[in-house]
Amino acid sequence: MITRRLVRPSSAFLPSTWTRASLIAPKRRQQQEQRRYEHRIPPLEFDTTFAKSGVPGFISQHGFRIAWTDYQGLMVDKLNELTAGEPYEHSLMKDIALQFARDPMSASLFNHASMAHNNHHFFSTLSTYPTPLDKEPTLRQSLINTFGSIETLQTTMIDTATAMFGPGFVWLIWARDLDAPAGGIRRGAWRILTTYLAGTPYVEAGYRQQGIDANVQNATSYQAYKDSQPVNTLGAFGSHSKWGREQAKLPPGGTNVQPVLCVNTWEHVWLRDYGINGKRKYLTEWWDVIDWGAVEQLAPKESKGTVDFMRF
């Protein structure tokens, strides 16, 4: 048997057009292309522990890898493909989602950016040693003033998520009052909001809030829902439109809605650990591992004052 040994040719035997630089150029180009990709999986505060052991009492190591490492990586990789070389390739995921929410030709761009943002929001309020709500008395009292009790808030969020026929998110949001503040204090209210698929909780997104489950709507009810949403015309979003005037009343950088907590109801998050009939158990376990310290940091300042009880 003849054994052939591959020998790297020296530069003396290479064609004149070949140089050492040309040999390593493809590698450098690959590195440059990798560096150009700006969107990465955002770090979680307890990322290392989650990767080794999962989220204690909630998601296993394998479940965490599917729901966060693999899925978030898929969203980020696709987002990099869609934004490469574009002026917005360095923009935040939330900003990209809002920028293209009303563009029907950019549905894929919106979906991947919004889903990446939503999924990160969900995992960012989990920790290895979650702060109980009792340790955040101001936030706790504010929630009680709106919902009557923490048990009511818990039951409502879990029941709402359980009843969702399709995948999505259930959010606890602070909805700012767009009316002029009395005495310089802007008011608002806590609300529970449902979004389906990659729908976003931010009202600036218009149609792509996806606040209803299209699986259980008929043509008439769905058309009524669409008619109640903003339309993509110049007059609807100009500085003198109703929307523009309402936005002008907000403080600089303010938004109508501030999400502080969400639960992910996509099947790939809970199916691995809880099984086909385990959705409600997954939701119940989620409530017990919420880091209310992280939620409190996301809550706007005005939400921690005196909030009157409101019915919706």
From TrEMBL:
* Molecular function terms, GO-annotated: metal ion binding; superoxide dismutase activity
* Occurrences of domain Manganese/iron superoxide dismutase C-terminal (ranges): 138-177, 256-297
SUPFAM superfamilies (alphabetical): Fe,Mn superoxide dismutase (SOD), C-terminal domain, Fe,Mn superoxide dismutase (SOD), N-terminal domain
Q: Which InterPro entries match?
A: Mn/Fe_SOD_C, Mn/Fe_SOD_N_sf, SOD_C_sf
Quote a single Gene Ontology cellular component term: cytoplasm
The role this protein plays is: Component of the mitochondrial ribosome (mitoribosome), a dedicated translation machinery responsible for the synthesis of mitochondrial genome-encoded proteins, including at least some of the essential transmembrane subunits of the mitochondrial respiratory chain. The mitoribosomes are attached to the mitochondrial inner membrane and translation products are cotranslationally integrated into the membrane.
Descriptive protein name: Manganese/iron superoxide dismutase C-terminal domain-containing protein
